[in-house]
Write a structure and sequence with these properties.
Main location: membrane
Keywords: Cell membrane, Hydrolase, Membrane, Metal-binding, Metalloprotease, Protease, Transmembrane, Transmembrane helix, Zinc
Largest sheet: none
GO molecular function, one term: metallopeptidase activity
Cofactor: Zn(2+)
Protein name: Site-2 protease family protein
Distance between the termini: 37 Å
Radius of gyration: 20 Å
Number of strands: 0
């Protein structure tokens, strides 16, 4: 469990709390922005279903599924309630399906990109201890962890939702581009949830067994942290000559 693992780490208790708060805030923001983007783009395409259902909002309470929220807090992975969309209301069906499906992923990628830019610009301020005041140091920790988690959640949510598995956005994109692939569509609608759960389960099993090359989510997560490391080193080299 994520919270248990954090609390078992040796170190300052306050830093652990900061780590958990940064994680939750970044996760909530990423998921809410993803769902809000779906609702907004659906409205722009002529479908007001999400707006009428109160989902065209950044209020987390309107988007979160109780079980998905609990899973996020316990294991670090959760989900939100899908935004209701009626494609029959789109002014142009194909354009509407593609843009609405891509909206959440695009929002997450933009968030991750902005996070990387802020990490590059702020890393010198987070690297140097300007004062012995613990409040300032804890603030530095919070900003640093928040940026890291915002970047990770942004990229990971985008990757996850681009998988061509029902009911993810990637499935809707593929189904819209290849409407005649009825066999694939029928299979995914019937078994997609099980395929998705199996993929997540196998990823965790491979991770526990140390088979990193079979854990696609773990591999992508490592790539993200490597990218952040490159950005941080470049920032220190440019701004502080370190």
């Amino acid at each position: 469990m994520f919270i248990y693992q954090v609390m078992m780490i040796d170190g300052d208790f306050v830093v652990k709390i900061i780590l958990i708060l940064a994680f939750v805030l970044a996760a909530v923001s990423a998921i809410v922005l993803h769902e809000f983007s779906h609702a907004l783009v659906a409205k722009l395409n002529g479908d007001y279903t999400a707006k009428l259902a109160g989902r065209l909002t950044l209020n987390p309470a309107k988007h979160f599924d109780p079980i998905g929220l609990l899973m996020m807090l316990l294991v670090g992975f959760g989900w939100a309630k899908p935004v209701p969309v009626n494609s029959n209301n789109f002014t142009k069906y194909k354009r509407g399906m593609l843009t609405v499906s891509a909206a959440g992923v695009t929002a997450n990628l933009l968030t991750a990109g902005i996070g990387l830019l802020l990490l590059f610009l702020l890393k010198p301020l987070l690297y140097v201890a300007f004062t012995s005041n613990p409040l300032i140091m804890y603030l530095q920790y919070f900003v640093y962890y928040l940026l890291q988690f915002a970047i990770v959640f942004g990229f990971m949510l985008a990757l996850f939702n681009l998988l061509p598995i029902y009911p993810l956005d990637g499935y809707n994109i593929v189904a819209t581009l290849f409407p005649k692939a009825t066999g694939y569509r029928n299979f995914m609608v019937r078994y997609g949830v099980f395929v998705l759960l199996g993929l997540i389960l196998l990823s965790n099993v491979f991770d526990a067994l140390g088979l990193w090359y079979l854990d696609i989510f773990g591999m992508f997560n490592s790539v993200i942290y490597d990218l952040m490391g490159l950005v941080e080193r470049a920032s220190l080299r440019i701004f502080l000559q370190v």
